[in-house]
Amino acid sequence: MNHPQPSGSAWRRPMVPRLSGERHRTATVLELFFDLCFVTAVAQTAAAFEHELAAGKVGHGVLGYALVFFAIWWAWMNFTWFASAYDTDDVPYRLLTLLQIAGALVLAAGASKALEQYDFTVITYGYVVMRLAMVSQWLRAARSDPEHRRTCLRYAVGVLVVQIGWVVRLALPDGAGLPSFFVLVVAELAVPAWAERAGQTTWHPHHIAERYGLFTLIVLGESITAATATVRAALNTEVSLGDIAPLAVGGLLTVFAMWWLYFTQNAAEKLNSLNTALRWGYGHYFVFASAAAVGAGLAVEIAHLTGHAHLGRPTVAAAYTVPVALYVAVLRLLHRGAVKPDTQDAVWAVGILAVLGVTFTPSPVLATGCVASALVAAVVTVTHRARTSVPRVG
């Protein structure tokens, strides 16, 4: 049984579950503020990733980026799903959210060192602060919501145990660093699936879809901001506007196409079960990470143009085209679900292969922008034809 959002004093309200079918359920100003603070960590991580790529440390940079981005994405995701079910917006809730924001800023401060040196000390402290704040939130929910108490306690215990693991990991010898990291990642990912089996929380499909869409917008916007700063810096060198223009135009076309493709379908309609919700939530790790990496890839392209990237031409191009291809591929997988192969699959597959193919062209950024734009046109056309070909009833 769902309960309406309780009224009463803003100082403290019972943390009862919100209606999963609540009308006009939209992102709150606190959630938007939370996202903007989190994007600071995204920006720091993407910048460190770009530096590693430009220095020629491709394997080291990719692995470090994947590890650091997990901490950002997972902390953001857990807050988002909890807030969808239990946002009371009282003083304790806001203060605990502030604590999570503080942890995100600590994480951002340690992002470069973690990515470049694999020193996760600072980032671990910031991450654990955020996750312990969530433990407190789940305990509050367990106290106020008898119907879902078992689920809430599972979350609280699971998250707490894993956080102890992250702290213990700091004392392990260097050789155990990566294996222990992956073990703890698996443990983190297992907690929601284990907890929700005891009774699904009342997250709101439309609210979740909006939250993910908004964070995607913010990450794409951060990529544009980072690319703009890099272009401005390049123009202060001997590089001409004519040399930069194809990169700027191609980058803008690419990001605009990525935005368009993300919102081609109604995600909320697909979030109709725990399994689809888990697939949607977990799959967005690659959506967010690849979207942020596009800005880093464009920065590497400009660094190569100015002679500051120690990489071969194909590797420089791949730093841009591969994140775009990954973004498009994951989007298609998330949207299509378990339906039979259709014309849309072929269109998306051709687009992905074309993006990868332009890696070996003289101007891969501009070519990627053109291919991504063509993919948008093809998807819009195929979708329109599919809708208009459906016979009307009556």
Topology diagram in text:
Layout (H helix, E strand, L loop, with lengths): L28 H26 L3 H29 L4 H27 L3 H24 L4 H21 L7 H20 L8 H31 L5 H22 L11 H32 L7 H24 L6 H15 L6 H25 L6
Helix pairs in contact: 1-2, 1-3, 1-7, 1-9, 2-3, 2-4, 2-9, 3-4, 4-5, 5-6, 7-8, 7-9, 8-9, 8-10, 8-12, 9-10, 10-11, 11-12
Fold and architecture overview:
With 394 residues, this protein is mostly helical. The chain is 75% helix and 0% strand. It is built from twelve helices and no strands. It has helices at residues 29-54, 58-86, 91-117, 121-144, 149-169, 177-196, 205-235, 241-262, 274-305, 313-336, 343-357, 364-388. Helix 8 runs parallel beside helix 10. The longest helix has 32 residues, at 274-305. It is globular. The mean pLDDT is 88.
